Structures are given as C-alpha cells and as structure tokens.
UniProtKB/TrEMBL annotation:
The chain crosses the membrane at residues 24-47, 53-77. The lineage of its organism: Eukaryota, Metazoa, Spiralia, Lophotrochozoa, Mollusca. Keywords: Membrane, Transmembrane, Transmembrane helix. This is Uncharacterized protein. It comes from the Eukaryota. It comes from Dreissena polymorpha (Zebra mussel). The keyword Transmembrane applies.
Length: 78
C-alpha cells in the first residue's frame, strides 16, 4: 500500500513538474510575442516619423524655392 502511495506521489509530482514546465513555456511564448509586438510598433512609429520628417523637409524646400523665384522675378521685373 505504501509503495502505491509513493508511486502516486511521484506521479503527481511528475505531473506537477510537467504542468509547471508547460506554464513556463507559455510564459516564454507570451514574452516573445509581446516583445515582437513592441518591436513592430516601435519600427512602425520610427518609419512614420521618418516619413513625416521627409515630407516636411520637401515642403519647406519647395516653399523656399517658390519664395526665391518670386523674389527674383519681382526684383528683375522692377
């Protein structure tokens, strides 16, 4: 009877460890997924910021060129 009890305890302990291992694996998967999502969000934000900066720079250059052309035309016409 004692050996059966010991065997049951060992089995339940083994089952507990297996369950604990699966929980650790689930936590690792969750951590990896969260890290990947954070990395993707950061990359998307950086790309959006770079695109906005490039658009602003291009608009400013176009405005400067238009102002210079208008000033040159006004000066030459006068």
């Amino acid at each position: 009877m004692m050996s059966a009890r010991r065997g049951f305890d060992q089995y339940s302990g083994s089952s507990h460890y297996r369950l604990h291992g699966q929980q650790v694996l689930v936590y690792q998967v969750v951590v990896v997924v969260v890290v990947e999502v954070v990395v993707v969000v950061v990359v998307v934000v950086v790309v959006v910021v770079v695109v906005v900066v490039v658009v602003v720079v291009v608009v400013v250059e176009v405005v400067v060129v238009v102002v210079v052309v208008v000033v040159v035309v006004v000066v030459v016409v006068d």
